[in-house]
Specification:
The protein is globular and about 45 Å long. The longest helix has 17 residues. It has a six-stranded parallel sheet with strand order 5-4-3-2-1-9. Strands 6-7-8 form a three-stranded parallel sheet, covered by helices on one side. The protein contains nine helices and nine strands. Helix 4 links the parallel strand 3 and strand 4. It has a single domain, classed as TIM Barrel (Alpha-Beta Barrel). By secondary structure, it is α/β, with parallel strands linked by helices. It holds the Pfam family Aldolase. InterPro entries: Aldlse_KDPG_KHG, Aldolase_TIM. Homotrimer. Keywords: Carbohydrate metabolism, Lyase. Pathway: Carbohydrate acid metabolism.
Length: 206
Amino acid sequence: MLKQALAANGLIAILRGLRPEEAQAIGQVLYDEGFRVIEVPLNSPSPYDSIRILRDSLPADCLIGAGTVLTAEQVQQVKAAGGQVIVMPHSDANVLRAAKAAGLYLSPGVVTPTEAFAALEEGADVLKLFPAEMLNPGVVKALLAVLPKGTALVPVGGISPDNMAPFVSAGVSGFGLGSGLFKPGMSADDVAVRAKAYVAAWKRLH
């Protein structure tokens, strides 16, 4: 279902710093604009509460996940909160295996072919290219040339509506959007404006 969600709209909302009391309103505007994957990094305030609120308040076709997942114990806590996607900045095999054993979707962070193949071997559903600021579209093209056909690559870091086109041309399946979409203290209306700009850019490129 993660790949289907990205096929509908390849934009993943990364809500670092989200507070539980904001979660429902911000989740709703993102859903209304077309986002179907929303991630709450675990270094946010009370992240498991926000994950539970998002899961309880949004339709089933919107996947809710956790980012910056660093341990197998956190995987279990995410699942208990209703989270469905484990997003990592790295590719720790213990965390990867815990996520698969828990039946959750998995998006580990990779940069090199070695990391990418190892993550796929452990059952990764989508590969998070992080930090994308280090990677140009030529790197994406080279990776996709050697990785199994159909591998989903999603750059995260420094993505704006204006710099998506070369990555899309290179074959990425989507983008993870952090501070360009949401920063702590933003209102739901602020987020809606930014979400519209990203979705419009994504649609123009497809």
